[in-house]
Design goal:
Blueprint lengths: L2 E6 L6 H13 L2 E7 L11 H11 L6 E6 L3 H7 L4 E6 L2 H17 L4 E6 L9 H9 L13 H7 L1
Parallel strand pairs: 1-2, 1-4, 2-3, 4-5
Length: 158
């Protein structure tokens, strides 16, 4: 069974994240969406429980996906869950350079891990959690950039 982890802070989970998970779920038998907790260096608006709930609500229609929260090393989390693969998304050249460096870290902490890169759809390459938060802060419409099932909760939190 091929099992993969797609991890992030997901503050909030976007349609870009959804697209990557849906595509990964077509390749792997099981995809675990790992919501990073307090060990992450990012300051999140939503609590880890809220972020996990938003991710779960967003992916209700993808049957071979589960959501779990974690702290600590991503490679440890993957190993603890029997996953050999990490799914990572790349939107642009900046992401590529960042991910290339992360790959060295992942493989140094666990040489058994394989990285599976997915390039964002061109229509979604500008969508990020930061973009959603900035748009919401400026009273812009975020409806097109998050999953409909989680929209109301996202509006309530952000």
């Amino acid at each position: 069974m091929k099992k993969a982890v797609f991890a992030g802070t997901f503050d909030p989970f976007t349609i870009g994240h959804y697209d990557l998970v849906k595509r990964a779920a077509e390749v792997f038998d099981e995809v675990i969406v790992g919501v990073a907790g307090n060990g992450s260096k990012k300051k999140c608006v939503a609590s880890i429980e809220q972020r996990a709930k938003i991710a779960s609500m967003s992916m209700f229609d993808i049957k071979n996906v589960s959501v779990k929260v974690f702290d600590g090393l991503l490679t440890d989390f993957a190993s603890e869950n029997g996953a050999k693969y990490l799914v990572r998304g790349i939107r642009n050249g900046v992401d590529f350079e960042y991910e290339k460096n992360l790959m060295a870290v992942y493989q140094a902490t666990n040489p058994e891990i394989e990285i599976f890169y997915l390039i964002s759809q061109p229509t979604l390459s500008f969508v990020s959690s930061s973009f959603i938060k900035d748009l919401k802060f400026l009273n812009g419409e975020i409806d097109k950039y998050v999953c409909a099932n989680a929209l109301e909760l996202i509006k309530e939190i952000y």
